[in-house]
């Protein structure tokens, strides 16, 4: 028997969701890199996988009417709503700001060439805000499914 099954299910869901981002990005023909394993955003949502695994594990362990399930569900709704709302909007603003910076650097390079001054450094051009912070609703949905599945798998392995 696993000492803290709900915690292990939640942590396993995070690790699993982060690990499968690379093959999923490859299958969806998106830019792939091992950096995806440690990044926020993407398919599936590890935030949603974590909280849904926690909720599922608590429901299996203590029953659906447990106050722990109610607390975890409330927490989970907030986490998932935040990942689709505030954090996603921050990412979209990051995209826009990065486009503005690129355009500004291009304009600055042209002005510097016209005035025969030094070029804009590569470091200045490569300064980017993080763009992939939040999740699309479909990423949250698959995160929820991932979390539920992981909770059942962890339970079957350790019980």
UniProtKB/TrEMBL annotation:
Residues 97-124 form a coiled coil. It comes from the Bacteria. The keyword Membrane applies. The keyword Coiled coil applies. Pfam families: DUF212. Keywords: Coiled coil, Membrane, Transmembrane, Transmembrane helix. The chain crosses the membrane at residues 6-28, 64-81, 140-158. This is Divergent PAP2 family protein.
């Amino acid at each position: 028997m696993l000492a803290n099954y709900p915690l292990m299910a939640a942590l396993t869901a995070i690790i699993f969701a982060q690990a499968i981002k690379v093959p999923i990005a490859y299958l969806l023909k998106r830019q792939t890199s091992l950096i995806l394993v440690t990044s926020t955003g993407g398919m599936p949502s590890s935030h949603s996988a974590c909280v849904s695994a926690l909720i599922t594990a608590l429901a299996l362990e203590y029953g659906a009417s447990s106050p722990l399930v109610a607390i975890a569900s409330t927490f989970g709704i907030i986490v998932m709503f935040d990942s689709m709302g505030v954090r996603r909007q921050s990412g979209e603003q990051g995209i826009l700001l990065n486009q503005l910076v690129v355009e500004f650097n291009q304009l600055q390079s042209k002005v510097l060439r016209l005035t025969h001054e030094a070029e804009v450094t590569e470091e200045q051009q490569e300064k980017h805000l993080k763009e992939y912070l939040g999740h699309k609703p479909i990423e949250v949905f698959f995160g929820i499914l991932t979390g539920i599945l992981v909770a059942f798998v962890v339970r079957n392995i350790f019980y």
